[in-house]
Write a structure and sequence with these properties.
It is built from eleven helices and 13 strands. By secondary structure, the chain is of the alpha+beta class. The strands form five sheets. It has a five-stranded antiparallel β-sheet with strand order 4-3-13-12-11, sandwiched between helices. It is globular, with a radius of gyration of 19 Å. The relative contact order is 0.16. The N terminus is likely disordered.
Length: about 350
């Protein structure tokens, strides 16, 4: 585990060089312990187990379950009755619902949860199932990582990847014929929310698109996401629905995947497509600005869903999950997230 964490940190430290190198991002991550520029033809089983498994993440001295485990299911507890999960330590509980200074949010649904204990710190319509737009791609990342596929394998975008879903076209800066390896497809899907990339990840999954969608819904059931259903892998289809509660569970699960943590919070990346360079920025302004310690991020938008965002962050040494669904504008979404993070930062600390 220590080696995997060190490798990830090293990869992050060289991220400024990625746009200058012809070596793929997957190769840089895989070979960062042995030096930049040592291209790998494919991931070995040892590489995959070290980076994809990332078997546990230390958080304030405690370890969490392995990534991909179906025993991870997060029980979201009311703040007035929560007990510390997997710990014998005495924990002082604060009923945050009693604070008169609780912020109001523009979003139709919101959740802030202590990621370690499951304590709900803030809630608004948390059990209401609604369209989630590109928040879908977080589960797309989970299924891709769980499959342990060759992340250095090249994938060429086809016309079908641009067909859209749910009656919506797939607007993109990518083009038919563009080729990336699977790691870069996952990166551009998570950081830039590129719909054709998410579609291609499903298309090239063993068994194809239908098997991928089935895996998404199976994973949701395994995690205890009872208000969730996926119709496709991009989020364009408004039949992709979930609740703030369920997405809190998904964010907690996603935080245990090294690839998803790193890729979803990459602020900027230049994709070398051979005939052109695609300069890309993260869709979350809070990630781009770098003012918060954000470990997982995914934004989303279609008309039916409004502006959405989910994050796993650390505020005053408290790991926290933030979910916002159905904000009216991008600025309202950013304001909601900032207000909630500032509010959490001023909550009394546990003893």
């Amino acid at each position: 585990m220590k080696n995997a964490k060190n490798m990830l940190m090293h990869a992050l430290s060289i991220s400024v060089l990625l746009g200058l190198s012809s070596t793929s991002f997957a190769d840089l991550v895989i070979n960062s312990s042995g030096g930049v520029g040592q291209a790998a033809l494919s991931w070995s089983s040892a590489d995959a187990s070290q980076l994809l498994n990332d078997d546990s993440i230390e958080d304030d001295g405690e370890e969490v379950s392995p990534q991909g485990s179906t025993t991870l299911t997060t029980t979201i507890r009311p703040s007035s009755s929560v007990a510390a999960a997997s710990s014998n330590k005495a924990v002082q509980i604060f009923d945050t619902n009693s604070y008169s200074s609780q912020p109001s949010v523009n979003a139709r649904a919101a959740l802030v949860m202590d990621a370690k204990t499951g304590e709900v710190l803030y809630s608004k319509n948390t059990n209401t199932s609604m369209p989630i737009a590109s928040i879908t791609k977080l589960m797309t990342g989970v299924i891709t990582a769980d499959a342990r596929l060759n992340m250095s394998e090249d994938i060429t975008l086809q016309q079908i990847d641009f067909a859209g879903a749910g009656g919506k076209n797939s607007s993109s800066t990518l083009k038919v014929g563009d080729t990336m390896n699977r790691a870069e497809m996952l990166l551009v899907a998570l950081m830039k929310s590129e719909n054709p990339a998410a579609a291609a990840l499903a298309r090239t999954y063993p068994g194809g698109r239908q098997a991928f969608i089935a895996a998404m819904n199976t994973k949701a059931r395994q995690l205890g996401m009872t208000s969730t259903h996926y119709a496709e892998s991009t989020g364009l289809d408004p039949r992709n629905v979930s609740s703030a509660r369920d997405l809190g569970i998904l964010v907690s699960a996603s935080s245990q995947y090294g690839l998803i943590r790193q890729f979803s919070t990459t602020a900027h990346y230049d994709f070398n497509l051979g005939y052109r360079v695609l300069k890309s920025n993260n869709t979350n302004a809070l990630v781009r600005n770098g003012g918060w310690n954000i470990n997982i991020s995914k934004t989303g938008y279609i008309n039916e869903a409004g502006r959405c965002v989910v994050m796993h962050t650390t505020v005053n040494n408290r790991p926290a999950v933030v979910v916002l669904l159905g904000a009216s504008t991008s600025q309202a979404r950013t304001n909601d997230a900032t207000n909630l993070l500032n509010w959490v930062s001023h909550l009394p600390k546990r003893i």
